[in-house]
Amino acid sequence: MPGLSRRRFIQAVGGVAVALGVPASAVAEVLLAPRAVGADVPGSTLAATIRPVSAQGRFRRLGSGPGEPFLLREDLGAQASQGRATQRRSLLYLGQLSDTHVKDSQSPQAFEAAEVLYLLGTGDAHRPQEALTTQVLDRMVASLRNLAVSPVTGAPMAFVVTTGDITDIDGGNELRWFLDVLDGKEVVPDSGAVGTYEGPQAWSGVPWAYHPDGGGGGMGDVYSRFDYPRWNGLLDAATQTFAAVGSPVPYFVVFGNHDTTWNGTLDRYWITDMLATGTRMNVDIAPLASLLLTHGGPKAADAWKDAVSDHWNGSAYIPGTRRLTPDPSRATLDSVAFMARFWETAEDPGPVGHGFTDANLSSGETWWSHDDGLFLHVGLDSCNHASGSNGSLNDSQFAWLNGLLTEHATRHYDSDGSLVENAAAEDRLVILYSHHNSFTMDNTAADPEFPGPRHFGPEIVRLLLRFPNVIAWVNGHSHKNTILGHRSPYEQGAGFWEINAASCIDYPQQNRVIEVVDNRDGTLSLFTIVVDHVAPPETAGVSYDVDGLAAISRELAFNDPFGADMFERLRSGDLEVGDPLRRMGDIEDRNAELVVRAPIALDGIEDSSLELRRVLAAGRVGVSGAL
Predict the structure, then answer these.
(1) What DSSP designation does 522 have?
(2) Per the CATH hierarchy, to which homologous superfamily does domain 48-621 belong?
(3) pTM of the model as a whole
(4) Nearest CA to 69 among 596, 594, 593?
C-alpha cells in the first residue's frame, strides 16, 4: 500500500473539516487523540451487561449486570508482546449486524401455526416478541452509532456488515423496513389494514400465540402458564411510524436462509406467493398442510393454480384460517429482485448496491468482493436457495473463492500442502463474511438456482487455512455468540478466527464490533466487543416509544418458553426451565482479544496512510458527538 505524504494528509484533514463545517484542528485532534480501553459507551458490554435480576412468578425480569473486560486468546499459537498496548495501531474497525429477522408478523405467509407442534421443536415458528423487530433493529443501530469510534484505539468505524437473515419470511416489505432503518428514514412497520393490527397475537382462540393485550390467560394462550405480563396496547404501538437513527457508516450485506427460502427452509413457489399477498392466515397447521400436500405441486397447471387461489382467497369459510387485509407489498423476492432493492436506498450512508454490483444483477451470482487496498472483503452466499435452513457453497462460488484468494496471496499452500509462491499476486489481509458458520454448513440438498456439487464447512475451513493471509471469517445463523480459532497446519501462529454473532430476534439480542490492530511486533489482534441494543435493561415503567418497545422485546425473548432451547428442555425433562443465557456464549466467546501472526509485511504501511483512512471514515461518522 503506497505511503501518504504529510502534506496530503493535512490536505485531506482540511477537506473533511470543510465538509463538516468544523476547524481542521478539531478533526486532527480527534483523530490523533488516544482513547481508553473500556470506555463507558451505551451498548458496549465492556461497561455493563444485561442479566436476569428478579422474577414475577415464572416470568423473569432483566436488569443491569457488571461489564466484561477483554479476554486474551492465543489459540492459534501466536503470542503478542507485553507492551503492545502502547505501540499498536488500528488497521480496520467495523460493526456487525446479524440475524435481524425483520418480520411482518401480520403476513399470511408466516407459517406460525407450526407453533402448535412446539413439543417437536418448532418453537421458533412464533416468537412472543416478533412484532417488535424494527424497533430492536433501530436500537441496535443506535448502539453502533454510540460505538462509531473504537473504545480500543479511537479509530472511526469504516462500515457495518449484515451477515444474513435480514428478513424473516423474505417479504418485500420486511426488506423495505430494514433499508429504511439503516438509511435513517421514517419507518412504517405495518401492513394490511394500516393502523389496525391483524394477526394471531390479536385474535382470541389462538392458544399457541402470546396475546399481550389479553394478558395470556385472558385470551386462553399457553403463555399464561409462564406468567407472561399484560402489555395493553403493545400491538398497536408496534405498528406506529417512527424516525430511525440510521447507520453511521456505509453498510454491506450478504444473504441468509430466511432471505432466500420460505420461512428459511422451503422452496418458494406459487403457493407461497399466493399466501404472501392473500387474504387468509393459517391458525392451525391442517389447512396449509392439506394445501401443500394436495395442491402444492410447483408445476401445477395454471387452471388448477387459479382454482386453488380463488378458493383460498374466496368468501367461503375454511376451518383453521382467519381472514385479514391483503397487501401486495408482502410479496416475496427472488434472489435478483432481493439484490436489486439495495439500489433503492439513500445515497448516505450508501454505498450503491451495499456490496452487490451491476455484475451480480446481470449474472444472478449472489456473492461479492471488495478490495480496499489493504483488506480484501469477501461476501459469500452460504445459502441453499431451494431447501433446508443450513448452508453450503455452490461449486461455482467455491471455485471463484479459490481463485480470488490465490490472486491476493503471494504465498499459499496447495491442496497437498506444498508451498506455492506467486510474486505477481497482490497481498491483502482477507476477511470473509457469510450467514452460515463452518459448523452449520452441511446442507446436501440440490439447488436448481446454482446446480452442481456442494461444498461443506470442513472443506471450506481447509481451503481457508491454505491461505495464511485469511485472518477472519465473520458469520451468524446460530443466534449464539461463538468464537473459534482455526489453527494452521502449515505455519506456527497462523490460521484464522471464526467470529460468530448472536441475533437481534432471540435473546440476548446482541451483535458485535470488531477491530483489527497491528501490534507492531509481528502479530495482529482482533478485538471483538459484544453489543447490546441501547434500550433500557428494565421494562418497569417504560413507555411505548422505540426504546420501550425494544426493551419489552428483549425481556419477552429471554422468557420464551418454546424457543430453540426446547430440545434441551425435553432432554432434561423440565419444560418450564431453560437457560437462555447460553445463547450469550461462554465468556471467551464474547469480549476478546484474538491474536494471530501477521501474515503479510506491515512495516511498509506508513502511519500516514492509515491516518488518511481514518480521516475519510471520520468524515462519514462526523466529528461532533460521535468523535
Answers:
(1) S
(2) Metallo-dependent phosphatases (3.60.21.10)
(3) 0.91
(4) 593
